[in-house]
Amino acid sequence: MRVLNDNLRNLFGKFQCEQSDVKISFTTFCRMRPKEFNLTQYISRNRCLCQKHQNMALLLKSVKAAGANVPLNPEDFIKRVQNNDINANEIMTGVKDDKVSYEQWKRVDCEDGKKRMKIVQHQVSRDELAAFFIKQTCEFQEHTQRIKEQYKAMSDLKHGLPPNHVIVQMDFAENFTCVSADEVQSAYWNQNSITLHPVVAYYKNDEGTLNHYSYIIVSDDLGHNSGSVFAFIQKLLLPQMREDIPNIKHIHHWTVSPSSQYRNKGTFQVVSDHMNLFAVSASWNYFESGHGKGPCDGLGGTAKRMADLAVRQNKCKIQDAKAIFEWGNSSQTSIKYLFVGSEFITEVRSDLEQKNIKSVSSVRHHENQSSECSINENYIVLLPRLSFW
Predict the structure, then answer these.
(1) Which residues have a Cβ under 8 Å from the Cβ of 17 and sit 6 or more positions away?
(2) Nearest C-alpha neighbor of 192 from the set 303, 65, 321
(3) d(CA 165, CA 204)
(4) pLDDT tens, residue by residue, 201-215
(5) Helices 51-65, 74-82: crossing angle, 10 deg rounding
């Protein structure tokens, strides 16, 4: 199945210019369109892509347009470089122009004082582009290698998961927006949002078979930060998991790595004192930036789709966090819904702030490194089996 990249009226004009001796009407031209070619309305947009992958794709596109013989797919390009089919140092020999332009996704300052991601165009000399291209190629090769190592580590951990160990993979979903089947105008402009935090817990039963439990943590607090994460673990996640999976001895946390949510001093403090707080040891692993998609994304999307469908079918009215929590537990699904109120989350944030954990200097990324943890004078010195990528 293919999709046209232009509308039929423009394509008909091009056809008339190229085939002036063929006389057909626009209606006949549309009727003769092959069925396997869909219209432009079926063109999809890709969202939440990896910034490093997209920047490499934009760079390859610009280099190829300038005359270099390179594939447009970043993954194919790296494979050919690793197989010595392409010499990255000789690619720019095909570029003849002295000035070359390329585009990159970057965070730029806007007029309102905020920073936003935009595609920025650069115009540089051929030598400057060659140096930048070599640098990007090396960084992208390391990026793809870390991704492969992480996915392999997760797969190996699932296959060799020790008894009484649990893998907890979690992530914030996009907030659920409360709507009604028949909604008045003023309600449309004052819609309520709900925080959804999907969690998937993997464990092995007595027969050694890998099973899992699916949880959706619901909250009326919209702050996606370390205080929320700590509250979710402290209030309901670990108590509920102990009820579902008895005799837990160690938890392997796997999350994405935004500093506002999981990779920060608050989370480091929690995991460093995990045994004292929850009577169970833990390690925390981070996925490479832009590549943390997994079962939590599907779990969150399924929950929101089912809730929206129930509202449209007039089976329930979801107007706040408690309503979706009650609906979720009453629906016939294997997903377990847990509720954490904003009051408790506010208390947890306050407790974390009172600990006055000071930030360490810039934490560099390391591959496959872990260490014991100790806290001295409110400084986190080392992190307990905390994987940086």
Answers:
(1) none
(2) 321
(3) 8
(4) 999 998 989 999 999
(5) 80
Amino acid letter, 139? E
The pair phi, psi for residue 108, each rounded to 5°, is: -120, 155
Q: CA–CA separation, 306 vs 298, rounded Å? A: 12
Q: What b-and-e string marks burial along 2-29, b requiring 16 or more CB atoms within 10 Å of the CB?
A: eebeeeeeebbeeeeeeeeeeeeeeeeb
Angle at 131 between CA 127 and CA 134, to 5 degrees: 135
| Tokens of residue 325, six digits | 């929590």
373's tokens: 């943890």
pLDDT one-digit tens code per residue, 206-260:
898 999 999 999 999 998 988 899 999 988 778 899 999 988 999 999 998 888 8
The arithmetic mean of pLDDT across residues 319-340, rounded, is 91
Structure tokens at 306: 């089912």
